[in-house]
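haha ok so turns out i had the wrong file open the whole time. this is the CORRECT one, sorry everyone. sequence first:
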Amino acid sequence: MASTVVLGGPVWAESQLFLAYPPRQHQTSAAQIFFIGSAPPEGTVTINGQGVERSPGGHFAPSFPLRVGENQFTLRYGNETVGVTITRVPSQPVLSPGSPWVSESLRPNQDLARLPGERVCLGVLAQPDSTVGARLGGERLILTPQPVQKDLPPNAAALVAQNEPTPLVLTQYQGCLEGDRPGLLGVPVFEITVNGTPTVQEGAGTIRILDPEQLQVVEVTVPQGVARTGPGTDYSRLTPLPQGTRAEVTGQEGEWLRLDYGAWIRGSETRVLPGAMPPQSRIRSVRSRPLNGTTEIRFPLQVPVPVSVQQGDRTFTLTLHNTIAQTDTIAVDHDPLIQRLDWQQITPTQVAYTFHLRTDQQWGYDLRYEGSTLILSLRHPPQVGEQLQGMRILLDPGHGGEELGARGPNGYPEKSVNLTVSLLLREALERRGATVYLTRDQDVFLGLAERVTMINQLKPDLALSVHYNALPDGGDALNTAGVGMFWYHPQAHDLSVFLHDYLVETLDRPSYGVFWNNLALTRPHTAPSILLELGFMINPIEFEWIMDSREQRRLADTLAEGIMTWFHSLGSGEETNTSPQ
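then structure:
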């Protein structure tokens, strides 16, 4: 018997040609654009006179090249037409008419503070054969043309295999200086000369040299301060800093503070401690105890210092910064999780504690300060009986309410199929004995922070965020399909790989791949947390599989079976086998 395909979207009697993407007026820097839409299977859909391939259900997703500037497209089906204007903007900065340089490329572009002796670099993108200089603090600096430099695409380019660097079209001019005395250098004034004609432009931020004897000390005021590798949200995240962490500020760019151990944090997540001395601590004894399914390790410190975490195979390493060891005694004895604890003073100001664990799989951790004592809680493996008896699993149906997520060719929203499959998965997991929580069980809006908070409060054994996929502009919607898995913490890697392989092999689905990805729903560290992309809403053929009610139930049952198989393979100590049983 043929499977039932449930299709939502437009009513054909009202409008037979439906375009889900792109919008009628759209701007992009991509070299091509895909058109996601649908019409009754009978007849022909054309785009600019060219017939397009369609699925049995009438869906289409062809891609067309774009030239820089305005691109006009006309879609036709029968007597219906849809007009679309796509404006392709350059992917790199370009000169404004009559301007010899790109004003938004002036660096620095916000207030900047550095220590004495550090390099402060000024820069600008300008046309070749220019003469560029700058005045700062009463001195003149020559900015010289740099050898050919490369422009990096956005991170999402990795998802469409288009992440190679490209040469900059314009020339980067740069010059650096070192401020040797504390004080305000002021705002740089740039001067560029082309064909003997000078143009002057004041910079966008002041430059200040800090006094190393009067550096501010700040304290983290939020539950988890977001530490990054650089001064902005484009930079990578580091281990979050527990509330109460103290550090000295050694630099500043705009609202971002550079802390003494190298990370950057928003000033709004801290408060200044007037008159506080640079936070430095000694550490002596360390003690652990089993407690309610966790092992709690207490690190008594003189002051709350910054921390870093690294998970490995059967190891968990906690590094304390601005800390000197005076450790002679560590009390870790007959622990159900920890086999041994080693420590090492790896630099004069960093102490690393490495926990050697009894199990390969890690199940989550917490870090917090109680006064100046750092408390690390390492979660024990769940006690699971037959099938999944005793396991606690949180399911997060992505999007909801006014947040539609991706849309299929007929306009059907991702949020709805996320919820449908999550409810089916809950049933399948509960039949196997698991206790299941849902972040939402109705079509309501739920913010990312609310979903993450629920994971951190419930502390389930596993957290799975259920999604279906789309592509950024420039992707190939017609030829991209399959199951994708996303993880962030190493404790979630094995599960993501296993479930990806299990679904691909058991259901005979295409593979999109397994990705490390810095996503809100992969970042929780209190439990192994993964984000599942179970197929592509924008692929015409895969969308019909996605909407097949029988296949939805089969997918949910296979996922539940895969989770059970994965967990029990851990207990056997054998290599996980993704072949269906």
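Confidence is low (pLDDT under 50) at residues 1-13, 572-581.
again sry for the mixup
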